[in-house]
Amino acid sequence: MTDSQKAPVLSNIDERHGVKLICSYCRNHVPNIVEDFASGDMVCGDCGLVLGDRIIDTRSEWRTFADSEGDDPSRVGTVANPLLDGDQLDTMIGRGANDGGLSRGLNRIQGLTKEHQSDHALVLSYREITALCEAFELPKSIVDIAKQLYKKVADDNLQRGRNNNAVMAVCIFLACRQGEAPRTFKEVCAVTKVGIREISRTLKVLKGKLSADSGLTSSKDLIERFCSNLKLDNEVWRVSRMLNETAADLDNITGKNPMSIASACIFMASQLVGNARSTKVISEVSGIGESTIKATYKILYASRKELLTAEFMKHNPNVSESNLDAL
Predict the structure, then answer these.
(1) How far apart are CA 31 and CA 47, in angstroms?
(2) Average pLDDT for residues 227-235, to the nearest whole number?
(3) CA distance 159 to 140
(4) Would you list the DSSP string of 132-182?
(5) Mean pLDDT (whole number) for 225-248
(6) Which residues pair with 41 in a beta bridge?
(7) Per-residue pLDDT, 104
């Protein structure tokens, strides 16, 4: 073999970027290697020399052995779900129509196994959590947090002897806090149909076991959501937020319910901007009684000189103190 016929030697740069597989007989610079997965051979497409045998087909197997083709004929399975137990490599037995009831009987027997019952209970709980979170219009990230918290409860068997609906409600409540989209007890109770005492009692037990900080609901977290539900513009939301930040320094407002403070700030801001909302409408959205909103508003109105400073009025030129109602 002459020097011109010798196979090229890989340089250092070629070695760093990878090695090219060529036929030992043809030695073509542009190899034509064919992988025949049916026979398990790797063959040169130019001369037919078998370069390897018993190769493994690493591709997905898109075949189905069902009587009828379905929407997804794959037999590769889905990804493992970290929220379920076990390796999840078991086979699910369906219910055939023309097998004399054999598959139906096998399906019933499989459903009686302990592992299947455990996963089935978790799946049902996850579906319920998803449905409740959808009622709150929560993002998927918070739904996943709620499911993870419930999985911890199930792993430690903390739900035994407790109302499962209350456990799910607490998981959603804690997930909202961790996801920075807090919901109040009243809102959780309204959606989950669980009493506030039951949720409070379950929360006290699970909060320490889950090492989850329930935090405190601040009026700042509620103002944006209340304004959105009231269909108020950004100006009212901005003024309400500024009023809330200033009101936090008032001595006579300390200790008030954050929901009542948020409602009173929105009521006051809507009047200042000239897009007033009645206490009745705000009460229906926030869940706070009209009398409570009015009582908190009177405190803000009495301290209006401290709230409506010159700097405040400068940043909000459309605000007018004359629009305020003394109630």
Answers:
(1) 11
(2) 89
(3) 24
(4) HHHHHT--HHHHHHHHHHHHHHHHTTTTTTS-HHHHHHHHHHHHHHHTT--
(5) 89
(6) 36, 53
(7) 75
